[in-house]
Amino acid sequence: MSNMPADLKYTPSHEWIRVEADGTLTIGVTDHAQEALGDVVFLELPEAGRVVAAGEACAVIESVKAASDIYAPVAGEIIDCNQAAIDAPESVNADAYAAWLFKLRPAAGADLGGLLDAAGYAAAIA
Amino acid sequence: MSTPQTAPAKRTALYSAHLAAGARMVDFAGWEMPVNYGSQIEEHHAVRRDAGMFDVSHMLGLDLSGAGTTDFLRGLLANDVARLKTPGKALYSCMLNETGGVIDDLIVYRMSEAEYRIVVNAGTADKDVAWMRQRIAASGANVTLEARRDLAMIAVQGPNALARAAQAIPELNTASGIPAPFSAVRLGDLFVGRTGYTGEDGIEVAVPAARAAAMWEALLAAGVRPCGLGARDTLRLEAGMNLYGQDMDEQVCPLDAGLAWTVDLRDEGRDFVGRTMLETHTEAKAFLGLILEDKGVLRAHMKVASARGEGETTSGSFSPSLEKSIAFARLPAGTEPGESVQVEVRGKALAARTVKLPFVRNGKALV
Q: What's the whole-model pTM score?
């Protein structure tokens, strides 16, 4: 059974989202996703300053097996990406919730209401 | 709209053993097979450094016998079974259609004068048997073909494979136990071939299905690590071994897939299926390895731009041994190892260089 912390939000496309105290979002891929992907060997992450639309493919995660897109959960501006994860892609397999991928400042009026909670995500992947 | 009817996935005799070992199962050519048991990279390293085992029971063993078998196979296969002088000796060959395309690639072992074991791929097994039966019937050759779905097959591969397998399989501890490289022996109800698909030493053991789980357990106890299809793919890619359906198929002739070495044209009187097409096939494509110099991962069917024109990757992945991405590529005739090329990866042109295959053999990087 995959691990899915209750304090995070999720998308059906297997991103996790942590809403920080300042309103910014920290985003990664779920434990379920890393397990399905297998050994992660390459990450292509968006640079700070890039403006993304909700649902836009903005990062790529490649395992030995396949490449998968990672989507912006809401519209906004990228404010950081995780260089440590780029340097050690296997950290996503080791702990998918510690190995965050990028941070995003939601655009004014961006709607977070469509994100799933842990129970909703568990139902989505069941 | 109607839903396509799909047959339920087939399971090998080792299905329960895979689940017990924590396998992640996937559909492969209609079979439910393990893709990994956790980390495919660790499984890959186990085969390069120690010993790993693969369930290859989805592949099919065929027994051909009868006075006409040698002549029949000399007409059926692009490689020449007449090269097999010593009992047990193995040969890798393509089986071609009339247009020189590859119906399948296979291993044939000559066990005695007129007795052969052939092992074919899972996804092509039914069409292979149909093709062979049709050719036997059409020629009237004295050949009996028996498909051996009663057998399971376990490949044990790696530098310590023979030593660990000998601890687990009593038959291997006899005078005739371990066959010579690229040869096979029958040991009681076992068929043991010193062959594989990893670039390492090892054996492939065909065993009655009822005995397969016990043999798997004994190999586990001897320290052999279960390995899935994921590791099998990266191992064969590093070893420069083609994958049917990906690197070649019925539309591709062996000369365009780096397999000229498996086509034997020396006996001018040997009229095998596809020969005429191969003899008129000029300007064969170069089939080379690629090593990615930029960051990223090469996959199958990416466009390659070279000095001589355009080509295409046929297989690609991340090489755990080299810690770089590698691929096979079909490139314009005359392309040489050591050239710089550009591969189109998601809209970007990434730098790669061509190399002679294989990338890795017997645990050592060759590039």
A: 0.94
